[in-house]
């Protein structure tokens, strides 16, 4: 019998056609993966001319996409060949409608004008994934995320809903700036756990809508704390049931405050309240003149409450306990409560004991013959700190509210918000760090936006923050030593708006004035690497994507 002819596979033309089609697609988008000498795949690189690899065959060089353009810049970018992803008419945001990421998915779908689905995800979709056991080389920390774009879809993975939310902000900015998300994987996480904005709503009224607009702006920048200075000498700006007599008009109602906190929390921002004491209580003392501190001549000490009078402590604790439920259950580190503690008039005198002899005598009665007014003030803050700790908060105080070295030492735990070194007896920030205190940076040289620019303040600029400031620059323009500057010691920073001359700017002017400082601050607190872009390029990017 003759030999049988080999049967020709009918699939071969289909395979060849598929290969040719894939090659044509790769050429059309400028991407081709080439085999190297040992058979392993490699991406085409430089060496050819005119975008070609050279050699005996003219094949296109692989062009890997640049990192997505965002503020703050992403920390790690692993590009891949491919056409990336862009939203389209069929785009869906995929997540369990009853799961922990439902709110994040609903918000993203609204922002992308996309549909919602519980899956499975397919081409064109964005899938949100919560993986509490994701390894460190994939997702870092509670705020970190991985964002992978491949096969025409996007997957955002985090250990927490906060991390996933941050990933969705990166995706949105990439779409705004580039129209698409490039192919590859972003691995991103913050350098500092506290990244925020402080607003003085006591000296100047900011309505709830203005504050809510800032919350949305902050969330886009991955900022995570809104510090509200609720009271000062000029006004007490929040509705009170326990002491309605102290409330100024206009003010925020509790319903408005709840709405602010709810919106902030939905954007993974914690609201930190501050009722400053024992100074800056002028509005409270207008209604309670019997608690006014007076000096040896009987003259009132502006804004200062008499900390030797037990009624003073009861009034402050009433307020702290009244507002605690509004702020207790919030995302992120904390929750925190700011107790103030700065600029108490008795301690600003050149000779406190001589100027305020009744306070000095009260200190000796309470704490022994060696005690002074600073011990009485330290005990006052310790007692207020105990009150907020009982309500579930970690206290924060201004650095000039820390009074060490006396009979009464500051209680722990608490954090120090460092703002100035100009006060009497000023201490270097390095001292607080070496004593073991955790510090938050509000350096008034760079981060104080004081309306009207009194007392030699000048409005901060985004350019100075971007080019000169780092979290280690706590006072003036010089950083603390590297061994004291890590995220475990300096927990973060905040831009602060103080309304000393409240009529100097409208609320709209304030919003415009802080726009670029907030963006520069967000960059420096999230990504510790020296910025790649110069200031004009960063400003152009910020205008384009935020």
Automatic annotation (TrEMBL):
<dbReference type="InterPro" id="IPR029018">
    <property type="entry name" value="Hex-like_dom2"/>
</dbReference>
<comment type="similarity">
    <text>Belongs to the glycosyl hydrolase 20 family.</text>
</comment>
<protein>
    <submittedName>
        <fullName>Family 20 glycosylhydrolase</fullName>
    </submittedName>
</protein>
<feature type="domain" description="Beta-hexosaminidase bacterial type N-terminal">
    <location>
        <begin position="68"/>
        <end position="189"/>
    </location>
</feature>
<dbReference type="InterPro" id="IPR025705">
    <property type="entry name" value="Beta_hexosaminidase_sua/sub"/>
</dbReference>
<dbReference type="Pfam" id="PF02838">
    <property type="entry name" value="Glyco_hydro_20b"/>
</dbReference>
<dbReference type="GO" id="GO:0004563">
    <property type="term" value="F:beta-N-acetylhexosaminidase activity"/>
</dbReference>
<dbReference type="InterPro" id="IPR052764">
    <property type="entry name" value="GH20_Enzymes"/>
</dbReference>
<feature type="domain" description="Glycoside hydrolase family 20 catalytic">
    <location>
        <begin position="195"/>
        <end position="527"/>
    </location>
</feature>
<dbReference type="Pfam" id="PF00728">
    <property type="entry name" value="Glyco_hydro_20"/>
</dbReference>
<dbReference type="InterPro" id="IPR015883">
    <property type="entry name" value="Glyco_hydro_20_cat"/>
</dbReference>
<keyword id="KW-0326">Glycosidase</keyword>
<dbReference type="GO" id="GO:0005975">
    <property type="term" value="P:carbohydrate metabolic process"/>
</dbReference>
<dbReference type="InterPro" id="IPR015882">
    <property type="entry name" value="HEX_bac_N"/>
</dbReference>
<dbReference type="InterPro" id="IPR017853">
    <property type="entry name" value="GH"/>
</dbReference>
<feature type="active site" description="Proton donor">
    <location>
        <position position="343"/>
    </location>
</feature>
<keyword id="KW-0378">Hydrolase</keyword>
């Amino acid at each position: 019998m003759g030999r049988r002819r080999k049967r020709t596979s009918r699939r071969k033309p289909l395979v060849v056609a598929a290969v040719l089609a894939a090659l044509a697609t790769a050429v059309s988008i400028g991407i081709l993966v080439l085999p190297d000498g040992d058979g392993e795949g490699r991406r085409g690189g430089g060496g050819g001319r005119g975008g070609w690899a050279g050699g005996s065959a003219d094949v296109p060089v692989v062009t890997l996409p640049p990192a997505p353009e965002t503020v703050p810049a992403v920390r790690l970018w692993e590009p891949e060949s491919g056409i990336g992803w862009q939203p389209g008419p069929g785009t869906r945001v995929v997540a369990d409608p009853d799961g922990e990421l439902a709110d994040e998915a609903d918000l993203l779908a609204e922002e992308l004008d996309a549909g919602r689905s519980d899956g499975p995800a397919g081409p064109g979709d964005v899938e949100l994934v919560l993986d509490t056991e994701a390894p460190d080389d994939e997702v870092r920390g509670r705020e970190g995320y991985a964002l992978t774009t491949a096969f025409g879809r996007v997957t955002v993975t985090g250990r927490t809903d906060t991390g996933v939310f941050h990933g969705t902000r990166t995706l949105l900015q990439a779409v705004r700036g580039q129209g698409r998300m490039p192919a590859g994987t972003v691995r991103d996480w913050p350098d500092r756990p506290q990244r925020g904005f402080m607003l003085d709503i006591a000296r100047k009224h900011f309505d709830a809508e203005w504050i809510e607009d800032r919350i949305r702006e902050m969330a886009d920048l991955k900022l995570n704390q809104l510090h509200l200075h609720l009271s000062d000498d000029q006004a007490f700006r929040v509705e009170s049931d326990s002491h309605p007599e102290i409330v100024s008009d206009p003010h925020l109602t509790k319903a408005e405050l709840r709405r602010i906190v709810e919106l902030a929390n939905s954007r993974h921002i914690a609201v930190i309240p501050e009722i400053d004491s024992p100074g800056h209580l002028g509005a409270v003392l207008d209604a309670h003149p019997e608690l006014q501190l007076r000096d040896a001549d009987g003259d009132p000490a502006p804004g200062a409450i008499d900390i030797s009078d037990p009624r003073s402590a009861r009034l402050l604790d009433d307020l702290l306990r009244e507002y605690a439920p509004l702020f207790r259950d919030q995302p992120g580190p904390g929750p925190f409560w700011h107790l103030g503690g700065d600029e108490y008039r008795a301690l600003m005198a050149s000779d406190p004991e001589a100027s305020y002899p009744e306070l000095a005598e009260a200190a000796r009665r309470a704490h022994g013959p060696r005690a002074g007014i600073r011990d009485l003030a330290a005990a006052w803050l310790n007692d207020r700190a105990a009150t907020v700790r009982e309500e579930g908060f970690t206290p924060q105080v201004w650095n000039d509210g820390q009074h060490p070295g006396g009979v009464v030492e500051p209680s722990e735990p608490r954090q120090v918000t460092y703002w100035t070194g100009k006060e009497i007896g000023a201490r270097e920030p390095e001292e607080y760090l070496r004593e073991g205190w955790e510090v938050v940076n509000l350096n008034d040289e760079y981060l104080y936006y004081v309306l009207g620019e009194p007392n030699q303040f000048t409005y901060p600029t985004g350019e100075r923050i971007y080019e000169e400031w780092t979290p280690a620059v706590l006072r003036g323009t010089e950083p603390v030593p590297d061994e004291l500057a890590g995220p475990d010691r300096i927990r973060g920073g905040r831009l602060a708006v103080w309304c000393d001359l409240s009529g100097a700017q409208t609320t709209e002017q304030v919003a415009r004035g802080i726009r670029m400082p907030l963006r520069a601050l967000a960059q420096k607190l999230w990504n510790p690497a020296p910025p790649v872009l110069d200031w004009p390029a960063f400003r152009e990017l910020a205008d384009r994507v935020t």
